[in-house]
Every structure is written in C-alpha cells, then in structure tokens.
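Ops channel
N.P.: pipeline sanity check, posting one input/output pair.
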C-alpha cells in the first residue's frame, strides 16, 4: 500500500456544536449579570422603596376613609335639602291654588 491510497479516503469532519465556547461563556456572563442585578434589587432596592411606599399606602387608605365619610355626609345633606325644597314647592303650590267655594 502506498501513501496515495490513503489520501483518497475521505476524512471524518468534526461535528460543530450549536454554540461555541466563546458564546457559552458570554451567555453565562450575561446570566450572571442578570442574577446579580436581581439579587441587588431584592435585597437593597426593594427595602428602601418599600418603606416609603408602605407609609404612603397607609396614608392614602386613611384619607380615603375620611373622604368616604364626608361623601356620605354630603349626600345625606343633599338629599335632605332636596326633600326640603320639594316640601317648600308643594306648600307654595297649595298656597297659590285658587280657593274653590
């Protein structure tokens, strides 16, 4: 056998993976950055924002309760005034009717 016979034999090609090593390292680095950002937000940013936000929510609910009470009082007063106006109109209409003998 000579060397020429071996040259004609097709060589097996290396199979390429879906991702190269550089791409895998880059994806892992991006994933690590996202995880670090999520941890930072959860342990450092949210507690700072959450304290002020919970106080504002409590204050808002207390103001809503006061406004609801005022609304009920105003609607009751308005109904009373409307009823009083109707009563006055009725009495005025009775006074203005001609008296029939």
């Amino acid at each position: 056998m000579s060397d020429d016979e071996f040259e004609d034999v097709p060589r097996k090609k290396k199979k390429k993976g879906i991702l190269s090593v550089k791409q895998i390292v880059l994806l892992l680095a991006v994933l690590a950055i996202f995880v670090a950002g999520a941890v930072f937000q959860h342990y450092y940013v949210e507690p700072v924002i959450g304290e002020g936000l919970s106080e504002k929510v409590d204050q808002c609910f207390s103001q809503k309760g006061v406004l609801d009470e005022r609304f009920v009082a105003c609607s009751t007063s308005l109904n009373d005034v409307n009823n009083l106006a109707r009563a006055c109109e009725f009495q005025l209409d009775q006074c203005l009717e001609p008296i029939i003998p």
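N.P.: looks fine end to end. The helical segments are 3-7, 21-96.
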